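One chain shown below:
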Amino acid sequence: MKTVRVLVGTRKGAFILTSDERRAAWTVQGPLFAGWEVYHLKGSPVDPNRIYASQSSSWFGQVIQRSDDGGATWNTPGGEKIPGPYDPPGGLSNRFAYEGETGTHLWYDGTQHPWEFKRVWHLEPSLTDVNTVYAGVEDAALFKTTNGGATWQELPALRKAKGHLWQPGAGGMCLHTILLDPKNEKRIFVAISAAGAFRTDDGGASWKPITKGLKSQYELPDPDADVGHCVHNMTLHPSRPDTLFMQKHWDVLRSDNAGDLWREVSGNLPSDFGFPIAVHAHEPETIYVVPIKSDSEHYPPEGKLRVYRSRSGGNEWEALTSGLPQQDCYVNVLRDAMAVDTCASCGIYFGTSGGQVYASADSGDHWAPIVRDLPPVTSVEVQVF
């Protein structure tokens, strides 16, 4: 019988939830890295025992952790000593250094501001090499390691795609989404808040904005600009990597030509604002979102926690409510806090700012909390092996 492992990052440590493929009973390991913000954990598709974690602290800086035994033990690939709670600031962030003359980008007030590394938001292990990982960071840039996290190099061509015009969103200027094309190893998609979406077709040597069709009438002087759109999340199905789905600051969208042109598919959603978007493991036209009331009220419309599913690739949506609180619920679900497993009966998972992790073992028809009362959840990933 297969094992299902859910990797959960929170504001105060990480947790690993484990079950068999029936997903009826779960064991909880953690907190790992207690007291640290863990923005993201993700396992290698090549070896499920290889897991990478982004551990961050405003006092000590950024630390990458790696496990080679499924999360039982961890190490820092660069060999740094993890500081204790009473140590001075660690300065560990200098392993992520921008290349060349970095220049400046726009700031909240419209002035120019120097690039400053703050933290790693997202880790994306290679589909083919256990030691290769991409890292999306704040201030927005893409880094790559080929030695299991011991050293990192920037792919600097991305910031040449009008990086001087990129400007932070409310949560900072973060590269939060990295999609690797399983049919073309040189094609990578990234999304940046609040710069937009970009694609490389040559392994990162050059990049182009992929924002045609996006509208940002409340965010940009030119609503059709090619950079400056606040993209919250993107996803694709491995069988059809040219079809992308996007949750934007406002609007749910899709592209059927690798991002060259987008069209809105928000349809009958109660709100087209939200953060995560996911696609079913076996049904490329089945997608999931979690609507949030607005950009100022980060909680579900009417206080009802509802996942919405479209089986037609958008436009027509149904509310999935069985097992989810339908009154007085005012949690948020962040952009990296939803994941899908590859079991025969597809499982969907999401974590909330209230510390609950909900799971459905039947494609979203029924839900149950598999753990409660964690710190606010920042990310959810799942492995099946």
Remarks:
- The mean pLDDT is 95.
- The CA atoms of residues 105 and 111 lie 8 Å apart.
- DSSP finds no helices and 29 strands in the chain.
- The two ends are 9 Å apart (CA to CA).
